[in-house]
Structure to design on (295 residues):
């Protein structure tokens, strides 16, 4: 019987990125930057005159929204790459990014709702931005449910890749929803025509928080991908053990 | 109160996910190492003496 020289998870030039060493140092950077985000949001940024302290939710809600878009864009790219190359690493990245993206979208919806209650007087409104975001949440809940309900791993990866590509179409719709339809949701203040419509200190706090959440996203996806690759190796070893017994 | 609730939820979810992920990762890694060891022992037994 031949020994496996290279585990299936390592059979990709980018597999080294998901090593334990890179994960530990990135986790430290993520912790430091999340501390900086907390400082920027709670202490550095000035209190908004009309909304008061509740406006500070914005420094978490907006970065969560941006990183959710990033996560589902990565799912889109990795899914397309998987369909073309059938590399297990691409499937692992897509699955990991979908899980982290769903987590971030869930937090984005909750923080948005917590902001809306004191400002709009309601927890939820069937507004275009909120409804299309909820649709995005359901698409990726479906993505993850499909992955765990289909026994054939290769088939599940193929079907999920198609959902990952089609689901990403919702992202530009969400982004443009406040322009295309009448919406309660505030329009973009950072990417507003004519430059950011907020004071410099608020913009700085937002950018610090945005960088922190992006690093956190990268760390979580690296950890989750390592987990996924370990599962690929485990399956291969189990299969080998079974073949040997047979 | 709303700001405090939002912050608590975000931090609890992030830390909780990190803890769950680390736990699953180390459990899987242990199982993987055990299987690899078993695999190499079998190889040694198969090898000509």
């Amino acid at each position: 019987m031949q020994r496996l020289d290279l585990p299936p998870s390592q059979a990709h030039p980018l597999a080294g990125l998901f090593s334990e060493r890179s994960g530990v140092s990135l986790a430290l950077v993520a912790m430091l930057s999340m501390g900086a985000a907390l400082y920027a949001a709670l202490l550095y940024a000035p209190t908004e005159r009309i909304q008061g302290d509740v406006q500070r939710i914005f420094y978490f809600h907006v970065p969560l929204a941006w990183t959710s878009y990033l996560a589902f864009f990565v799912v889109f790219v990795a899914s397309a790459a998987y369909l073309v190359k059938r590399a297990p690493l691409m499937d692992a990245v897509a699955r990991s990014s979908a899980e982290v993206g769903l987590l971030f979208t869930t937090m984005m919806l909750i923080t948005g709702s917590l902001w809306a209650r004191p400002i709009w007087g309601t927890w939820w409104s069937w507004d275009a931005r909120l409804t299309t975001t909820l649709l995005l949440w359901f698409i990726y809940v479906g993505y993850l449910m499909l992955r765990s309900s289909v026994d054939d791993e290769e088939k599940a990866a193929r079907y999920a890749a198609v959902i990952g590509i089609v689901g990403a179409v919702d992202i530009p719709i969400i982004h443009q929803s406040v322009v295309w339809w009448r919406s309660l949701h505030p329009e973009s203040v950072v990417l507003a025509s004519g430059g950011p419509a907020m004071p410099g200190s608020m913009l700085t706090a937002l950018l610090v928080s945005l960088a922190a959440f992006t690093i956190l996203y990268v760390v979580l996806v690296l950890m989750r991908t390592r987990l996924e690759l370990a599962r690929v190796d485990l399956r291969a070893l189990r299969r080998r053990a079974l073949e040997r017994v047979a | 109160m709303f700001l405090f609730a939002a912050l608590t939820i975000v931090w609890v979810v992030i830390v909780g996910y990190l803890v769950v992920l680390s736990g699953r990762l180390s459990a899987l890694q242990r199982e993987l190492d055990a299987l690899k060891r078993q695999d190499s022992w079998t190889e040694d037994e198969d090898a000509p003496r």
The CA atoms of residues 18 and 24 of chain B lie 10 Å apart. Residues 2-46 of chain B form the longest helix (45 residues). Chain B touches chain A through 27 residues (CB under 8 Å).
